[in-house]
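Minutes, structural biology subgroup

Action item carried over from last meeting: produce the structure token record for AraC-like DNA-binding protein (Taibaiella chishuiensis). EB confirmed the sequence was re-checked against the source entry. Recorded below for completeness.
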Amino acid sequence: MEAKQELIFDKLVYSCAFEKHRGYEEFIPEHFLGFQLSGETHAFLGDSTTVIRENSVVLVRKNQLIRTIKYPSKSGKYQFLSITLDQETLRQYALENKITIRTAYTGGQQLFFEPDDFLHHYFMSLAPYVNKTKAVTPRLSDLKIREAIELLLQSNPDFRTILFDFSEPHKIDLEVFMNSNFRFNVPIGSFARLTGRSLSGFKRDFTRIFNAPPQQWLREKRLEEAFYLIKHKKQKPADFYLDLGFENLSHFYFSFKQKYGLTTGEV
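Output recorded by EB:
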């Protein structure tokens, strides 16, 4: 049975699965707050892996790449609730509450966990909407999002430097970023935004640093990683081709043979 993802109201999403499911690579444009109802989520960000266990509350920062694998619980069900904290709502909240951020957040692109009872009970209060036993009006939807913001700030006041930082991403080290994130199969425009560049600026800087256009470099880098995994880690292409950004196995085999003049079995 395939995993399902359902929009309950404007910014609340319910995900459910009954077997292990590999999620798609995603560019996260807005902050979101999530709760692992059952099972667990393995989240991959760059070179790091984080496990979101059952009953964990998690705040995921905007403007980053993430890949997930969903594992059902022993009872056979995976459930995850997420509520988007969009920039428009956060700007309005900051204006109404006279919140200004003078020092931008300088921490890493990571997941924040806050096992707070109030946040746990908040997500449990969303159950009637997930079960469709209660209708959601636009006003109620707005109130629930604001409640989430209030509870986050109550659990950790330092979260305000994340939630209310409305600046554009700063230009970051392109070489370091791409060597950590080349496995993600996302549009070049997403890479550009995440490194604080326009698309044209990204392509220009990329070619200057790597002496190759982005698409060519990504293909070569992924194939080099594949060669290493096959020869030295004895892994099978079927087990990693998606994680290396290839859309299908036949495309991977063709590209590998084209670059190395060998089949994967001859390595």
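Discussion: The domain at 4-163 is CATH 2.60.120.810 (Jelly Rolls).
Next step: EB to file the record with the rest of the batch.
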